[in-house]
Amino acid sequence: MSTSDVELLKRAWREGGEETIEDYVENGIDPLMVSLYQMDLDRAQFLLRSYLRVRLLKVMLSAVRVVSEGAGDKGVFWSEGEAGD
Questions:
Q1: Higher model confidence: residue 37 or residue 51?
Q2: DSSP 3-state assignment of 1?
Q3: Do 22 and 29 touch, CB atoms closer than 8 A?
Q4: CB of 62 within 8 A of CB of 72?
Q5: How far is CA 27 from the centre of its chain?
Q6: What are phi and psi of 61, to 5 degrees?
Q7: Hey, how many other C-beta atoms are within 10 angstroms of the C-beta on 19?
Q8: How far apart, in whole angstroms, are the C-alpha atoms of residue 53 and residue 47?
Q9: pTM score, whole prediction
Q10: Which residues form the domain of 57?
């Protein structure tokens, strides 16, 4: 019974993903397959980092907008001179 790459990845995920790319090389897995696994891992990391960068930028821009819009409302934000009024 042969197992597909997807099944191997699912099994590795369920078992905690203990294997590393180096383990594949040491176990004699085809270097081309190791290269493909590494490229897929790099792609997933790039996508995740890119997504998180965009989300962080949106949060920062939203915070700036909220602070600038709320600066005139004493009930939400105070400027330095208004805090004691």
A1: 51
A2: coil
A3: no
A4: no
A5: 29
A6: -65, -40
A7: 15
A8: 10
A9: 0.50
A10: 5-70
d(CA 17, CA 69): 47
Q: Is 37 helix (H, G, I), strand (E, B) or coil?
A: helix
Which helix (H) or strand (E) segment holds residue 59: the answer is helix 31-70
**81 lies in a domain?**
no
Distances from the Cα of 71 to the Cαs of 3, 6, 35, 63, 85, in angstroms? 61, 53, 54, 12, 15
Total count of domains within the chain:
1
Instruction: Judge whether 8 and 27 are in contact, CB under 8 Å.
Output: no
Taking alpha carbons only, the member of 17, 77, 72 closest to residue 8 is 17
82: in domain: no
The residue-averaged pLDDT of 54-61 equals 94
